[in-house]
């Protein structure tokens, strides 16, 4: 079976889409999150060029290898995992210096800011 990938032109830049490119883009965005910082599923999807694909980020994390998964949180800084996994995530984040306000990470202090992508008009 032949592997297919669709390409399109958007804003004068050639973009390749397909499961492999989406996955690698999301993994790259996750790896950019610094130690002691956190981000949300939605922010990672936007940074990878797939706005609205927060669930895809969760799928990549589930299947990923050697990713800093503990740095990815739900909207508002909430740990979305349950049970022992949630406890492990919080402990890992606290070991990196992330502080919590109740059940949520202090996003004002620890949110990783992805650089803004240049819009097509500014190029």
Can you describe this structure?
The protein contains 5 helices and 6 strands. α2 (41-47) packs across α3 (54-63). The chain has one domain: Winged helix-like DNA-binding domain superfamily/Winged helix DNA-binding domain (Arc Repressor Mutant, subunit A). The termini are far apart. The strands form 3 sheets. The chain has a two-stranded antiparallel sheet. A two-stranded parallel sheet has the order 3-4. It is of the alpha+beta class and 123 residues long. A hairpin with a 2-residue loop joins β1 (6-10) and β2.
CATH-defined fold name:
Arc Repressor Mutant, subunit A
Over the alpha carbons, how many angstroms does the gyration radius reach? 16 Å
**Terminal Cα span:** 39 Å
What order do the helices and strands follow?
A: EEHEHHEHEEH
Please identify which CATH superfamily we are dealing with.
Answer: Winged helix-like DNA-binding domain superfamily/Winged helix DNA-binding domain
Helix coverage percent: 25-40%
Would you spell out the secondary-structure blueprint of this structure?
Layout: E1 6-10, E2 13-17, H1 19-31, E3 39-40, H2 41-47, H3 54-63, E4 72-73, H4 84-95, E5 100-101, E6 104-105, H5 107-110
Parallel strand pairs: 3-4
Antiparallel strand pairs: 1-2, 5-6
Helix pairs in contact: 2-3
What does this entry show, briefly?
The chain has 123 residues and is an alpha+beta fold. It is built from five helices and six strands, in the order E-E-H-E-H-H-E-H-E-E-H. It has one domain: Arc Repressor Mutant, subunit A, CATH 1.10.10.
